[in-house]
Amino acid sequence: MGSVVLLDLMGGVALLLWGLHMVHSGILRAFGPDLRQLLARALSNRFTAFAAGIGLTALLQSSTATALITSSFTAEGLVGLVPALAIMLGANVGTTLIVQILSFNIAAVAPVLFIIGLVAFRSGARSRIKDVGRVSIGLGLMLLALHILLDTLAPAENAPGMRVFMNAITGDPVLCILIGAIVTWAVHSSVASVLLIMSLAYAQFISPAASLALVLGANLGSAINPVFEGAHRDNPASYRLPVGNLINRLVGVLLVAPFLRPITEILQAWQPDLARLTAGFHIAFNVATAVIFIGLLDGMARLLNKLLPDRVRQTDPSGPRYLDESALETPSLALADAARETLHMGDLVEVMLRKVMAAMMTNDRALVDEVSRMDNSVDNLDEAIKLYVTKLTRGSLDEREGQRAMEIISFAINLEHMGDIIDKNLSELATKKIKRRFQFSPEGAEELSAFHKRTTDSLRIAFGVFMSGDVNEARKLLAEKSNLRNVELAATERHLDRLREGRPESIETTSLHLDVLRDLRRIHSHICSVAYPVLDAAGELPIQQRAESDLASLPSPAAHPSLPR
Question: Is the pTM for the entire model greater than 0.85?
Answer without folding.
Answer: no
